[in-house]
Amino acid sequence: xxxxxxxxxxxxxxxxxxxxxQRLVLGVLLCYRDVRVSTEHLLDIVWSGEPPSxxxxxxxxxxxxxxxxxxxxxxxxxxxxxxxxxxPDEADDQLFEDIADAGRQRLDAGDAQRAADLCREALRLWxxxxxxxxxxxxxxxxxxxxxxxxxxxxxxxxxxxxxxxLGAHPKLVPELKKLVxxxxxxxxxxxxxxxxxxxxxxxxxxxxxxxxxxxxxxDELGLEPGADLRELERAILTEDPALDPPYARxxxxxxxxxxxxxxxxxxxxxxxxxxxxxxxxxxDDGGVAGPPVVTINGPGGIGKSALxxxxxxxxxxxxxxxxxxxxxxxxxxxxEPLPPHAVLHRFLRALGVEESAxxxxxxxxxALFRSTLLDRSCxxxxxxxxxxxxxxxxxxxxxxxxxxxxxxxxxxxxxxxGHHVTLGTLSPDESYLLLSRLVGAERIDREPEIAYEVxxxxxxxxxxVQIAGSxxxxxxxxxxxxxxxxxxxxxxxxxxxxxDDLAVRASCDVTYTALPPSTAELLDxxxxxxxPDFTVHTAAAxxxxxxxxxxxxxxxxxxxxxxTDTGAGRLTLHDLIRLYAREQASxxxxxxxxxxxxxxxxxxxxxxxxxxxxASAPSHERRAATxxxxxxxxxxxxxxENGSAAARWVQSEQDNIAAAAEHAALLSGDGPAILAGxxxxxxxxxxxxxNQFGLISINQLALTAAQAVGNSLxxxxxxxxxxxxxxxxxxxxxxxHHGFEALDAYRRxxxxxxxxxxxxxxxxxxxxxxxxxxAVSYYEQALAIHRDLGDVTGEVLTLTxxxxxxHRAGKLDEAIDIHEQALRVGHASSVEGIVRFRLAxxxxxxxxxERALEHVDAAIGIFHxxxxxxxxxxxxxxxxxxxxxxxxxxxxxxxxxxxxxLLCDTRRLSFEEADELMRSLVPSAPEAFRRGRP
Length: 934
What we know:
By secondary structure, the protein is mainly alpha-helical.
């Protein structure tokens, strides 16, 4: 942006964006980068408040071309808004601002040479005098360009100020004369010229410059020059010594400590964190007083100290006043945290303070430490801090040019002047590289896939990877496969992850032993069920305590870095901490208590699943009554205020429910009943999210349990649900088998409503094979039973399935008539959504697109209100097809994108797959929509 607008790829090659309007749209998005901009606002800005009738279509075209040029992840759509995503190191204006601001801060800190270098580096980024040189149609761009140009002028003045402090006044005079002639009203430039002239012995010329400035200000502004310029004139007239050129001070006879430990030679990865923290250690006020303080927190073994050492080594040459280091023993086994006074005493001695001059009190010693660092640029590394109380006395004063790096297991967020980074695990590639550096690339590269597996079993925890590498080095005859076999056993994995003085278990022990009893009890219980993640409600069920009380223990576990808050109220354990919790549970929780805790969680899921079911579809009381009575369950479940809340709960808990079902299958007593209840209650909620695979898994477990206890009614229900799910996955032979098993079982039980549902499903299968007469026969049997029982919902579903069968047979008039008949019967709203969707399909094939659009829009609204995400996404896709038929291609693409976003949200499709589909002008329907359909 600093000149004519250019876009380059990662290798520096320009990307051609030649259309003027396309460049203007990009320029506007750059001005609002990383912020969502509505389509209406874009239209208003790009066409200066007077968009033509074709503007909206043209804008979508420009955005489409930009997404193709820049990549779809660059311009993200949120409904009717767009957001351009630009990284902090990817735009020259942001780089300029960061470097220029760093130069200003070094100037304020008294480091003139570094300030001059940084300002020159920032100014070299400018390729012209003006920003956005070729784009001046938009007031938004003109405003942003003016802001950048003002920052450029400030950076130029800061560079000149730094060079003046370095004694470069003779060479600055010609440049300053030219700048003042170009910018006669910039008083700082005028003052710098006056100072340079005075220091060159040209006081008369300096005073003449003041007279020119005064005349210009009065003539054009009607004002006298500012106070700074008038004070400079007075100083020149009185030959104030403060104006004299700087000279090197006599060398100080004070100690310059160099205590930083060397970085670990195998340090790997963390490139983004290292770059960001390096920038933070260049002082900037940013609205926060005091020297830069960065705190790196994370669980034991995550690599905090390794990153801090690398960071310190990376920036050490910027701190000429010395480097101080202290290990504060915040998490050292068998050792108490180091008292602040002991650290202050050693630091002051290292800085040259006599022993006798160091106060005995912590507050007084801290005050002396701040005074000693008042004008010294020191780098201080405080490793393994216990808490903020230990760290605060060790921080420099607010005007010191020093900087501080702190590592701690706790997040020291109450150090308000700090920039806090929570460190996560390594990426798979970083773990592989670390293992390679520890063991040797030749040995690791012989078994690369196994090396990645070893890193995964180490949980990508740097300490665990280091231990694995050390064991391989100490056992040269071992292969990677032999180590992997040892780590494969989850029960003994923590035993294997120990070498010499390094051990994952010992690292966890330090934090665990410091936990309050209730918090430790919660961690133990979290090791019982191996849930991928969980909520506070689940944790409360495990320990059988009130949610509010458990939330306090959850907060303590998060503070201790034993638990991770993944957002949206979800919590998770690192794999190795999970194993540690499992070990603690085996020692501290008796078998009866363990089974009781698991049963409480299963009850929580069953009650909530029964609550979620009616939001997805009208469910007969038979499903709600399958399994234990709700009155017998030891849980009140999770409150779900509407269909959307039910859908969110199902989406977030589906993996946990699968794990819970496996526990129920192994649970004696009411385990089979719980499992049957879960399978029945989750049928509609899981189906509404398109999660057929999850339903099949749970129902297969439930079928085994139901057959083991001889419950035919449960078996019938499960056969029916398996039949439906398998049909939706195009596994037709298996689906028919379970369909007829369900029909036989319902008839043996005398369950007529279930018999009708099975007959309807079998009719659907025959209809899929275009065996119309047989399909109609089964539908008529189902209709007779539903009408005899007064089951309106069953009647409507049977009718609309019959209509779909006629549709598949090519009898569109009959199909439309039956669907409309189903609408007239009267029914619950979610069933109405199904009928209207299928009616819209038939109308589309009858070339009645406008009528079809009305029905599909109604269906979308119904599915959305019920949180039935999969059906909503399928209906949205049909809407896009209808819009395309009606020659509205851009509107169709918007709807298709929305449909794919919903599929991605429910994990039925990846964002990469969605982007691939949208690369076609008319994308094909996702495979998930085509299953079980014509």
